[in-house]
């Protein structure tokens, strides 16, 4: 079955690193994504990773994929107050739809 | 800021009524997907339209229906509204039926927030 799980809330101090975790159940997923949603806004694609990769780095963002454990994480280095938002993990198999997690609310305090 | 526009941004309906939500896709995109995001939840796939045909559907009842027009804009129609239909409805556009991962070409609009009383 299709299910994506995330912890609901994460609070970090400005300048620290944030790590947001996600587990998924569909081993046939070929693409995994991280989206950001700010209040009153739509979804912004932050980064994605193919299932045959272990890691992807894009500026302050690092994605780690453990396919054996079906675990995906997003690390944000030097977290800023502007990073405060809800972060969604999503997976897809045949690319016609995304399966989203419930989202992790990241709060960054000074 | 993406080129995907949705209307209306907010609306209030009562149970049993019908609603139509509209989406204009990004220029050059021929595929529109609709998602429902209930409060505190992640978006759930409703259906996708590619070149005016339904191209995949999630676990939503038939009272959720859609259209895509020759200019690739789209409508989401919901009949016999229920309280649980209250949600943010998101439209996303992409090219050729793909989730857009290869080029990051999947763009979401800001959504239409529907409240059913």
Structural notes for this entry:
The complex is a heterodimer of chains A (110) and B (117). Chain A is mainly β. Chain A has strands at 4-6, 9-13, 18-24, 31-37, 43-50, 55-58, 61-66, 71-76, 85-92, 99-100, 104-109. In chain A, strands 2, 4, 5, 9, 10 and 11 form a 6-stranded mixed β-sheet that branches. The relative contact order of chain A is 0.35. In chain B, the strands form 2 sheets. In chain B, strands 2, 4, 5, 6, 9, 10 and 11 form a 7-stranded mixed β-sheet that branches. With 117 residues, chain B is mainly β. The model of chain B has no long low-confidence stretch (mean pLDDT 90). Chain B starts with a strand and ends with a strand. In chain B, 0% of the residues lie in helices and 49% in strands. The chains are: A mainly beta (110), B mainly beta (117). The A-B interface holds A 4, 31, 33, 40-45, 48, 88, 90, 92, 95-103 and B 2, 4, 33, 35, 40-45, 48, 55-56, 58, 90, 92, 97-99, 101, 104, 106, 108-111.
What is the topology?
The complex is a heterodimer of chains A (110) and B (117).
Chain A: E1 4-6, E2 9-13, E3 18-24, E4 31-37, E5 43-50, E6 55-58, E7 61-66, E8 71-76, E9 85-92, E10 99-100, E11 104-109
Parallel strand pairs in A: 2-11
Antiparallel strand pairs in A: 1-3, 3-8, 4-5, 4-9, 6-7, 7-8, 9-10, 9-11
Chain B: E1 5-7, E2 10-13, E3 19-24, E4 31-37, E5 44-50, E6 53-57, E7 64-68, E8 74-78, E9 87-94, E10 107-108, E11 112-116
Parallel strand pairs in B: 2-11
Antiparallel strand pairs in B: 1-3, 3-8, 4-5, 4-9, 5-6, 7-8, 9-10, 9-11
